[in-house]
Every structure is written in C-alpha cells, then in structure tokens.
C-alpha cells in the first residue's frame, strides 16, 4: 500500500532546477534509499516532502492525500518526521530531554504546561520519560540518558537525532545521511538499528546516504538522482551495475 508518492516533483531556485520532475513511490514498510552525488537534489527532496519548500510543479501524496504545499508543522503532525544532514539537537539538554521534547509534538498537553509541571501534566511527563527511555534503548543510548547531548560523540548524536524523530511516532521516517562521520563499526551498528526500526517499530524509512556499501546493504529499493534528474531506480543489484549510476559517481571524490 502506497505511503508516499512523488509525482513529477520539481523545484526551481532562480535559474537552477534543483529537483526536476522526480517521481518515486514508497509502500508501507519499505526501506528505501535516495542516493546521488553531492548537489544532486537529495536534501531538497526531503525539504519538498516535509513542506520546507513548496514544489514549483508536481505533486506529493502521503497515504493517498495530496500534501503538496502543506506547511511543515502540519506534515509532522500527519506522521512524517526527519533528521537533518547537519545535526540539530538541543545541545544544552540531556540526551533524555532531547527525546522528551520530540515527544511533545504528539501529546495534547502542551510544551509549556508540561514544563511548568501543572498537576494534569505530571502523569504525561512521566509517560513521556518512560517512552523516551524505551527509544534510547532502541538506539543504544540508554546508558547515557543523563549526559548533556553536546558531550556525546558525533556518531551518538546522530543516533540521538533518530530517537528524537521517532518520539513523534511518525509513520514515515526520513533520515538525511545518518551514517555521515561514523566509523565502520558505528555504521554497521546503525545499519542493524535502522532495520530494527522498520521491522519492530513498523516505520517506513526513506534514507539519503552517501556511503554506497551502507545503502546497498540496507535498502531494498533505491532511486538515484544526478543534477536534479532521476537517472535510475530499482533494487541494489540493478543500481550497482547501472552504467549511468557509475558514470555519475565517477566524478566524485569519495
Ligand atoms: N534554498 C536554496 N536556494 C538556492 N539553491 C538551493 C537551495 N537549496 C538547495 N539549493 C541547490 O540545489 C542543489 C541541490 O542541493 P541539495 O538538495 O542540498 O543536494 P544534495 O542533498 O543531493 O547534496 C544544489 O545545487 C544546491 O546548491
Ligand atoms: Mg544533502
């Protein structure tokens, strides 16, 4: 069943067409990869899906509903959440607090009443903390729950971003270069983690990744962009041997 569909999505920034009539579709439960050289338009696709930018033309459907041009806060409430290529954490807050803040989005008690510990929100705050600890276990950060997030290693900060995004209980999770800056062992752990998030938490995952080995080992289907154009789409086995994909990556310093 279709969860996300881009139908000829296009966006122009002045003279530059950053994403040019790109179409792809994810079914519920997919682990889908979006790859391509630097500047290919990958992050811009995430910005289109999450309502940061409105497409110049084309359509974006989520669970069959047209969400083209819907503002980002509404899209988050509909069930799409993302991480960022450049880590965006609340550096002064603890690891646990970062995930709790993510969870506020889906709770009826607002941020301010929860922070002020109004009587009716104490229970919800406890529940948020318990849920947040559960997510920290998923990304293997429960042992550093009370550490300031700024004091975490880079790889751990990336995993924390994933836990925070999951705290909104999205149906669709978008990960922008989650393995960037990680060492091979951290990447291997992340790969298993993302698989688990899909298998055990029922989330559909679309991820952007630069590391080919990572993406080929994780994703079941991949779409490849180059200069805003879709140049290939299919399973890793087909993408790996596609001459257009090889040519697009040849000019890249890896
Ligand atoms: N807000 C913007 N204004 C102008 N150009 C942009 C903007 N956002 C992205 N671009 C341009 O669009 C192209 C694609 O960028 P991006 O999607 O970030 O690439 P990728 O994530 O694949 O590396 C780049 O040439 C980038 O400079
Ligand atoms: Mg990018």
Radius of gyration: 18 Å
Number of domains: 2
Shape: globular
Q: Major sheet: order of its strands?
A: 6-7-8-3-9-10
Bound molecules: adenosine-5'-diphosphate, magnesium ion
Please report the number of helical segments. Answer: 10
Question: In which range does the helix fraction lie?
Answer: 25-40%
Structure classification: alpha/beta
Poorly predicted runs are: none
Largest sheet: 6 strands, mixed
The fold-level CATH name of the largest domain is Rossmann fold
Q: Which CATH class of the largest domain applies here? A: Alpha Beta
Distance between the termini: 36 Å
**CATH architecture type of the largest domain:** 3-Layer(aba) Sandwich
Kindly report the average pLDDT value. Answer: 90
Q: What pattern of helices and strands is seen along the backbone?
A: EEEHEEHEHHHHEHEHEEHH
Spell out the CATH superfamily of the largest domain. Answer: P-loop containing nucleotide triphosphate hydrolases
Q: Would you report the number of β strands?
A: 10
Short description:
Helices cover 39% and strands 24% of the residues. The chain is of the alpha/beta class and 254 residues long. The chain has 2 domains: 1-79 and 170-254, Rossmann fold (3-Layer(aba) Sandwich), CATH 3.40.50; 84-169, Rossmann fold.
């Amino acid at each position: 069943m279709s969860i996300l569909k881009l139908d000829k999505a296009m966006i122009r920034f002045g003279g530059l067409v950053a994403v040019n009539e790109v179409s792809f579709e994810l079914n519920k439960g997919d682990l889908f990869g979006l790859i391509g050289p630097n500047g290919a338009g990958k992050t811009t696709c995430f910005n289109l899906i999450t309502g940061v930018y409105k497409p110049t033309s084309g359509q974006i459907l989520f669970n069959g509903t047209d969400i083209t041009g819907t503002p980002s806060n509404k899209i988050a409430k509909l069930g799409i959440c993302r991480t960022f290529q450049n880590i965006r954490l609340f550096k002064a807050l603890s690891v646990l607090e970062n995930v709790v803040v993510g969870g506020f989005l889906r709770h009826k008690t607002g941020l301010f009443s929860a922070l002020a510990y109004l009587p009716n929100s104490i229970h919800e705050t406890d529940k948020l903390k318990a849920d947040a600890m559960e997510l920290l276990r998923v990304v293997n950060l429960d042992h550093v729950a009370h550490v300031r997030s700024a004091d975490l290693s880079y790889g751990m900060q990336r995993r924390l971003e994933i836990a925070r995004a999951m705290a909104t209980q999205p149906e669709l999770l978008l990960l922008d270069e989650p393995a960037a800056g990680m060492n091979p062992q951290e990447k291997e752990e992340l790969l298993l983690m993302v698989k688990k998030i899909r298998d055990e938490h029922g989330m559909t995952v679309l991820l952007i990744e630069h590391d080919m080995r990572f993406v080929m080992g994780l994703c079941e289907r991949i779409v490849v962009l180059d200069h805003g154009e879709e140049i290939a789409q299919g399973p890793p086995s087909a993408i790996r041997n596609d001459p257009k994909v090889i040519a697009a990556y040849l000019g890249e310093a890896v």
